[in-house]
Design a protein that fits this description.
Spore Coat Polysaccharide Biosynthesis Protein SpsA, Chain A, about 500 residues, eight-stranded mixed sheet, 22 strands, elongated, alpha/beta, seven-stranded mixed sheet, disordered N terminus
Length: about 500
């Protein structure tokens, strides 16, 4: 009989107490080694990165506070109103006495919320209760500013959205930033922002008209003078990280590029709206205003840096008429339409609330879409390739130049507006009489154009289309036009 060799009960038995103690000691040794390695690595990394002047951006995560924001605003079915918006207006105490007159033109004290943010407190006798309340910005001396050509006020203005958010105002869906020399069409702003979901992080605005400015800063940056709209969740995220972010960009020039840098760190792209106008131009703004994009007019900046919009008036007088027309019919303000007088072969190009151009020949819509370059860029450059939109050279032939009829007065007529546009005296009027006799005789007695403008539908801006025009009864001295939204189907140009 074969016998089984006798063995020690503890040898070769994996479940024996001795083997379990041995295995646990090896695991503990491994854990201690890994922990020591992690501690030493962390210490080494801290030593290395402590030598850099600024920390890197923290990884983005879906924080608890952001989760609360989304749940509070998600599914927001209520229609946006102006009371859902808080305005942060960047101002200067030294310039406020003049600039406040521009804000007065569009601010509605009874139903708007917001503040003018200044670098210092105004004297008590300079406070106007009909304008937005004044706020003094927080001290920014702790931030580095190393740009050799800019001004540290850019840091102060960049933080306005965060300071607005930290006021803790209730029921805010949007924060809108603008300068104190910006005119805003509040009704159109509400309509445009109403397209977007304010429960998400949204960054709305427009780049500059200047190609050089966009190249220097960014083609994907909203310029602050034209206005920047920031949804509530994005403002909340900015308020949590912006101060640390600003430390990483001491070399940047101004406020809007610093704001853009921090929004870029959050991963939010610019949503472009063509009705926001930085207006980085100088001189005569006629070519820009008369070719407004087919979109609601929202804002215009640098209003004191260009010639008066309407000839024969001061800048402020001109802006009062401009904003009067804007308020009476905001949806169709500055919208264009084209009428043809087939018998006399004339073209009427209307920019509602601003100007009617009468061409002594037939001009096709594609040519009228381009902006006549009556201005130079903010940097003084006048070449066409300096601008990031379609332009055309000014009319050189006196016989092809349009005769301009600028808005003189406007009033309500039912649900429409009735505007009177009066002929503007041109410097080359005598040359036109001499060299363009055949064309000029058709227009020599025309002094006034009346335009009856009907507003487009409430949702016109969602699927925009150029307004249509009808030529009514005419006489040698007065022409009557009617403008309104086109019907469905083609609009035929019978000429």
């Amino acid at each position: 009989m074969t016998t089984t060799p006798t063995t020690n009960p503890n040898n070769g038995n994996p479940r024996s107490p001795k083997n379990r103690r041995y295995r646990r000691s090896h695991v503990a040794t491994a854990v201690i080694a890994v922990a020591a390695l992690m501690i030493s690595t962390t210490a080494w990394l801290s030593l290395v990165f402590s030598a850099t002047p600024h920390s890197l951006p923290a990884p983005q995560s879906f924080t608890r506070s952001q989760s609360r924001t989304v749940s509070r605003h998600s599914g927001h079915s209520e229609e946006l109103t102006v009371n859902d918006i808080v305005f942060g207006i960047a101002g200067s105490a030294q310039l406020w006495k003049q600039r406040k007159e521009y804000v007065r033109l569009w601010w509605r004290q009874d139903d708007m919320r917001g503040h003018v943010w200044l670098e210092e407190k105004l004297p008590e006798n300079d406070v106007d209760r009909s304008l937005p309340p004044m706020m003094v910005s927080e001290d920014i001396s702790r931030f580095r500013y190393t740009n050799p050509t800019g001004h540290p006020s850019g840091l102060r203005i960049a933080r306005i959205v965060s300071e607005c958010f930290r006021l803790g105002l209730p029921n805010v869906r949007w924060f809108v930033l603008a300068d104190d020399d910006t005119i805003i069409s509040v009704d159109n702003l509400v309509a445009v922002l109403g397209k977007y979901d304010s429960s998400e992080m949204v960054y709305v605005g427009s780049p500059s008209e200047s190609h050089s400015a966009n190249t220097y800063f960014s083609h994907s940056m909203a310029f602050g003078g034209g206005g920047i709209a920031i949804s509530h969740p994005l403002a909340e995220a900015l308020s949590e990280m912006q101060d640390q972010c600003l430390e990483r960009y001491p070399k940047l020039y101004g406020s809007d590029d610093r704001l853009h840098a921090c929004i870029t760190e959050l991963g939010i792209p610019l949503t472009r709206e063509p009705g926001f106008h930085q207006c980085d131009i100088r001189g005569n703004a006629h070519g820009l205003l008369s070719s407004h994009p087919i979109a609601p007019f929202v804002s215009i900046h640098h209003v004191e840096a260009v010639d008066p919009f309407y000839p024969g008036s001061t800048s402020l007088q001109s802006l009062k008429l401009f904003t009067q027309a804007m308020r009476l019919q905001p949806t169709s303000f500055l919208q264009r339409s084209i009428c043809y007088d087939h018998r006399r072969r004339l073209t009427f190009s209307v920019s509602l609330g601003y100007v009617v151009q009468v061409f002594p020949n037939i001009v096709l819509p594609r040519d009228l879409e381009r902006s006549e370059q009556t201005y130079s860029a903010w940097n003084g450059i006048s070449q066409r390739n300096e601008f990031d939109f379609d332009t055309k050279d000014p009319y050189r032939s006196v016989c092809k130049k349009p005769i301009l009829f600028f808005l003189k007065d406007v009033r309500k007529q039912g649900n429409a507006t009735l505007g009177s546009y009066m002929r503007s005296k041109a410097e080359d009027e005598f040359k036109r009489k001499v060299f363009c006799f055949s064309q000029f005789r058709l227009l020599r007695n025309l002094q006034k154009i009346q335009v009856l403008g009907y507003p487009p539908t409430k949702k016109w801006h969602l699927v925009p289309r150029r307004l249509c025009c009808k030529l009514n009864q005419t006489s040698e001295a007065v022409v009557s036009l009617t403008m309104g939204q086109c019907g469905k189907g083609p609009f035929r140009l019978h000429y």
